[in-house]
Amino acid sequence: MQKHDGRSEKEKMLAGELYRASGPEIAADVLRAERLFSAYNDTAAGDAAQRAAILADLLGSVGKDVVLRPPFYCDYGYNIHLADGVFANFGCVFLDVAAIEVGQGAQIGTCVQLLTADHPRDPALRRQGLECGRPVRIGANVWIGSGAIILPGVTIGDDAIVGAGSVVTRDVPDGATVMGNPARMRKPSQNMA
After folding, report:
1. What are the structural domain ranges in the chain?
2. Residue 6: predicted pLDDT
3. How far is 132 from 80, CA to CA, in rounded Å?
4. Which of 69, 119, 134, 184 is catalytic?
5. pLDDT of 19-57, one tens digit each?
6. Cα Rg of the chain, angstroms
7. pLDDT tens track for 91-147
8. Left if phi > 0, otherwise alpha if psi is -120 to 50, otherwise beta: which for 23?
9. What is the CATH topology of the domain spanning 9-186?
């Protein structure tokens, strides 16, 4: 469905505006992503070259020495940008209706969700089927524990730690440790060598 300005729903989505997740462009992009991540998830551990080729087709950009252990799921793929040395363990979900940027050497635990998809707070707009996206940015050398959920619009600074099972609802400064639901800053109890 198009508004009077003639832009497609995909164009509105990519601009970060309210849009409907419908129309031929969005449907084609979803099918493309599902085909690619399904092929990726069907690869064997020894198929490093095949995995790299599929990720290069699926994602917006992928650095050197990236490890993304299947299964992995996303909306579109082309809004995901992984820097060199990113590691993501089994079962991650990256809902990328807006940009997801993961910095160099970031480590992401099992079943982590990076969510850019959002919905209006106004129930009348939700009834109209409108949604939106806000980017997620993960800094360099960040460690995100298993089962953490990073909500739309959140930026996690370089060298930060997100505890397992945390729900991150706001930005995390460089070097901070956050944990809990909602995630709150904690002082590290001890340094580990």
Report:
1. 9-186
2. 85
3. 16
4. 119
5. 999 889 999 999 999 999 999 999 998 999 999 999 999
6. 17
7. 999 999 999 999 999 999 999 999 999 999 999 999 999 999 999 999 999 999 999
8. left
9. UDP N-Acetylglucosamine Acyltransferase; domain 1 (2.160.10)
pLDDT tens per residue, range 160-184: 999 999 999 999 999 999 999 999 9
- In the numeric block, the tokens 């635990």 are attached to 109
- Per-chain mean pLDDT for the chain: 94
Q: What one-character-per-residue DSSP string does the chain give?
A: ---TT---HHHHHHTTS-B-S-SHHHHHHHHHHHHHHHHHHTS-TT-HHHHHHHHHHHSSEE-TT-EEPSPEEES-STTEEE-TT-EE-TTEEEE-SS-EEE-TT-EE-TT-EEE-EE--SSHHHHHTT-BEE--EEE-TT-EE-TT-EE-TT-EE-TT-EE-TT-EE-S-B-TT-EEETTTTEEE--S----
What's the token pair of residue 147?
């089962």
Q: Is 4 tagged catalytic? A: no
Q: Give the span between the Cα atoms of 44 and 72, in whole angstroms.
A: 14
